[in-house]
Specification:
Length: 275
């Protein structure tokens, strides 16, 4: 049951109502035709979700991942509407009305951490952490080099905030959690996406087909089913990066994620226990 609000829930300056040109996943995306509010989170299938929403809004280039226009992520180019595009009165109606579905997708924190580490610290010539975290350091190269282990990357991100590794619990202010209707999981993305799209009446037209290289598969297809299985752990070389000590440290770093009952991360699944 949602609490009764005293005054307006959404206030000017709230993180989810503030347009930040450097943080594209602050405000949620609003699909007015289907009364959906979706909170995208980096490293949690956000590219696919934004492609879906562009498809729902009728863009013929909805599948594009344009490096120049930075599609589908750039709010200045993707044509999507965000909560800040509405008046404060309308934003409050959207966020509090039971006629609107408020949803997000989350990911097991240690998997998300490893994905961010491999993508943003190890790959692509270390460009992301070099520009985001290390360029103003006295020894920028040493900063980059020290982040090439999971433990070193963890120490770096404690002092370098970024949405790619920020705790998922911090996605919204505390007062908004009672208004979130559905929390989906990367590990069961195909089933969860279908459940959401069926609820809002968008499955048959936008979710059931048109995805993957054959354009006949459903959204997320079978790709996400292995997100939590041992084959994916091997592919990521989990045991190369994680030690029992580092695994416990990452769990502590994301304690708020594990303790949020809406996320349903009920156990600390041990990556280093099974090979």
């Amino acid at each position: 049951m949602r609490p009764k609000t005293r005054g307006k829930l959404v206030q000017p300056g709230d993180f989810i109502y503030y347009r930040d040109d450097k943080r594209w996943d602050s405000a949620p995306i609003v699909i007015e035709s289907h009364k959906l509010v979706f909170f995208t989170i980096p490293k949690v299938g956000c590219t696919v979700w934004k492609q879906l929403f562009r498809r729902m809004e009728g863009y013929s280039d909805w599948q594009d991942q344009d490096g120049e226009r930075l599609l589908p992520h750039n709010p200045n180019e993707n044509g999507l509407k965000y909560l800040y595009d509405y008046s404060i009165e309308k934003a409050n109606e959207i966020m509090t009305s039971p006629k609107w579905t408020k949803a997000m997708m989350v990911r097991e924190p240690k998997q998300r951490f490893l994905s961010a580490f491999l993508d943003k610290a190890v790959s692509n010539d270390h460009a992301h952490i070099r520009n985001k975290c290390c360029q103003f350091m006295e020894d920028a190269q040493q900063c980059v080099d020290s982040a090439q282990t999971a433990s070193g990357f963890l120490e770096l991100i404690k002092a370098c905030e970024d949405d790619h590794w920020r705790a998922q619990y911090d996605r919204v202010d505390y007062k908004y959690w009672p208004y979130i209707d559905m929390v989906l999981h990367v590990e069961t993305a195909e089933e969860d996406a279908k459940r959401l799209l069926q609820k809002i009446g968008a499955w048959d037209e936008f979710g059931q087909t048109g995805w993957s290289s054959d354009h006949q598969s459903p959204i997320f297809g079978n790709a996400a089913k292995s997100a939590g299985d041992h084959a994916t752990w091997s592919q990521w070389q989990v045991w190369k990066w994680y030690t029992p000590e580092v695994e416990r440290q990452v769990e502590a770093f994301y304690r708020a994620d594990y303790e949020n009952p809406l996320f349903n991360f009920t156990t600390y699944e041990c990556f280093t226990c099974v090979k």
